[in-house]
Amino acid sequence: MAAYAAVPAYAQAVRGSTSEGRIVYPPSFFAAGRPDTAYDMVLLLPAFTFDPGGEARGYEASAGNVLIDGQRPSTKFDSLTDILKRIPASSVARVEVIRGGAQGIDMQGRTIVANVVRASTVTSIVSTSAVLLTKDGRFGPSTKLDASRSKGESRLEGSINIFDHQGGAGGTATKVRRSATGALVSDADVRFVNPAKAVKGSGQAAFPEWGGLLRLKTSFVVGSNLTVERDAVTDALGFHHDVFSSEFSTKQGELSADFKRQLSPNLGLGLVALQNIEKSRNADHANQAGVLTDADENDLAGESILRGELSWDAAKRLSAEFSAEAAYNFLNGTSNLIVDGTPVPLPSANVRVAERRAELSAQANWKPSDKLLVEVGSRFELSRLTVSGDERNAVSFKFPKPRLFAAWSPGKKDQLRLRIERAVGQLDFGEFVTSSSLEQGVVNAGNEKLVPDRDWVFEGAWEHHLLGDGAIVLTLTHFLLNDVIDEVPIDGFSAPGNIGSGTRNQAELNVNLPLDRLGLSHARLQADGIWRRSRVTDPTTGKVRHISNEQPFSGTLTLTQDIPRLRSTWRIDATSTNHFDIFRIDEIQRFRVGATVNVSWEYKPKPDLSLLVQVQNITNNNSKRERLIFTGLRSNGSIAFIDIRDVRAGPALYLRIRKTL
Questions:
Q1: Cα–Cα distance between 351 and 550 in angstroms, integer?
Q2: How far apart, in whole angstroms, are the C-alpha atoms of residue 296 and residue 434?
Q3: What is the C-alpha to C-alpha distance for residues 259 and 210, in angstroms, rounded to an integer?
Q4: Which of 65, 218, 271, 418 is most buried as measured by Cβ atoms within 10 A of its Cβ?
Q5: Which residue, among 87, 136, 137, has the nearest Cα to 114 in the 3D structure?
Q6: Handedness of CA 616, 619, 620, 625 (dihedral sign)
Q7: What is the CA radius of gyration of the chain?
Q8: Residue 98: pLDDT above 90?
Q9: Of 310, 311, 304, 309, the residue nearest 326 (C-alpha)
Q10: pLDDT tens digits, residue range 482-506?
Q11: 201: pLDDT strictly greater than 60
Q12: All domains of the chain, ordered by start, with CATH?
């Protein structure tokens, strides 16, 4: 499990011109904390919350909020977190925080981005080895080697990572089933392990070509994740053992190329081509009192993207961006369920999903003064989604996606931001194919009639700097939701489906403060919290409720102190208790996860060597799942059973050594 680098007491940042929309942080700003990687440096930025991006509709929308040398990494498989962790801090010339926009920077639709600018001439080889030791004796080693060489615009990079994690969801648990009257139906003591093994590799080459910069990138992942659960059960059959196993295996690969060229002093061209493919399998097996059950799911998925971008600096305070994108996504999925040697018919068990999408985009950026920025633009999508196999469906979409953004800085310490945007969600093609969970004893039907959810987003933010390099950011967001994806009935099974309109209100608070004035020298406090409230109409009961899988609150708190005389930094990371519910058509699942606290100490005897010791989950938090299982649809209001599973993974010890060769 990854561990975070420590946060130092900061030196005063060197700030760029306000008119440029940038705040520049040189290496000296981060020096007290001795960060290992660019990822560590990004985490230290005041008033900036790292977002790695993820699965989203379109290439631009899936980007994270960190650029590297002014460009977004041309990948959708290789995570932004991993990319930043491969960049040694010693090779970073500066980190810029850009609010609202700046000349030569593609904001990727974000209101704030960080830009990691690397030194032009660097050669580095970094070796990292780590091990995770759990309370019950499990052992998870990992090793990684990163190499890079750059001279001017030319750059070669390579990385290989091998790990065998034995932590994760392993641990002990209790499982109890009671009737609606509270009578004990079954009781079980549970032990389970969750080993994960993988090999991850990536390589990139960048070099001047055709009057611009050409970058070629490749990455791959080969891995598996196995969960084995052994239940010692006492029920109406007496005492017996139930065994469940679930193994997920995957092979992923990606190739991409992008090209940037300045056609004239005011006109820039960008081209991107990307192809990825993934083959995966999920094999479940169960032995319950001698009854053997097998469930098998196989998927082949891929994505192809071609994109062109044109940027135009029309005047000193006026610029425009235009883009055109074509994409093709597909998934071939099969699933089967066999109980005691007899196949069970499943809906949507053999399905092919394909989507063809074209999108045009135009955006204007205007800075009438150094204090005000206005962005106006829109994307327009034409797409067609087809489903074939056991179920058939074909539907075409036209999605306009207008966007308005404004940022006003009334003084040096404050900025107010406003965003209004139409957003369209990305469909999970796996939800078109039926799947099974043997441990829960449920079938999740596929739904060939799924359509993307669409939201109107209204957002306001206030950023205030204080105590030198401290900052507070408050963001309030209101969502008008259309075609919300939740749980609906399909052929008697619960399935993902569109349930109509709804609303969501969200408040986010980010605090980053130095503690020197409170008597804690070289110490810093970081706190982030998000509050969410949503309202939708339940398709089963007709009553108003919140959206499935939504956490009402999630938060983190980090306290760090640098001790220069010991060349060390200690850190405490705390994650809040969180809970969420899933509203299936015939049951309600309630998940509760206790607060987690990690404590770490990092020692750097030399600039090229770091040692980290981290005690994880010292609170021995529990993860509780409660299932209210109904006799039929939840609208009947009759509960048949209540299942409670309470898991404790236990504390773990993480050790890491990192050496620059």
A1: 29
A2: 11
A3: 9
A4: 65
A5: 87
A6: negative
A7: 26
A8: no
A9: 304
A10: 999 999 998 889 999 999 999 999 9
A11: yes
A12: 1-119 (2.170.130), 122-248+284-289 (no CATH), 453-465+475-486+526-661 (no CATH)
Q: Show the CA angle centred on residue 295, arms to residues 351 and 250, nearest 5°.
A: 70
Q: Residue 470 has what pLDDT?
A: 86
Residue 408 near residue 416, CB atoms below 8 Å: yes
Predicted local distance difference test score (pLDDT) of residue 14: 40
59 within 8 A of 305, measured Cβ to Cβ: yes
| Residue 616 φ/ψ, nearest 5 degrees | -100, 145
How far CA 601 is from CA of 19, 523, 567, 573, 653, in Å, comes to 41, 14, 11, 12, 12
Query: Residue for token digits 């059960």?
Result: 233
With contact defined as beta carbons under 8 Å apart, do 116 and 135 qualify?
no
Structure tokens at 499: 């349930």
Distance CA 35, CA 50 (A): 16
Query: Measured in whole angstroms, how far is the alpha carbon of residue 279 from the centre of its chain?
Result: 21
Residue listed under structure tokens 């309030």: 476
The 8 Å CB, 24+ separation contacts for 276-279 are 276/76, 276/77, 276/252, 276/302, 276/303, 277/252, 277/253, 277/301, 277/302, 278/250, 278/251, 278/252, 278/253, 278/302, 279/250, 279/251, 279/252
Question: Cα dihedral sign for 304, 331, 58, 37?
Answer: negative
Q: How confident is the model at residue 21 (pLDDT cuts 50, 70, 90)?
A: low
pLDDT in tens, 47-84: 788 888 766 677 776 778 899 888 888 887 788 888 99
Q: Which residue(s) pair with 204 in the sheet?
A: 157, 217
pLDDT of residue 22: 78
Tokens of 459: 């957002």
Q: What angle do CA 472, 35, 49 make, to 5 degrees?
A: 30
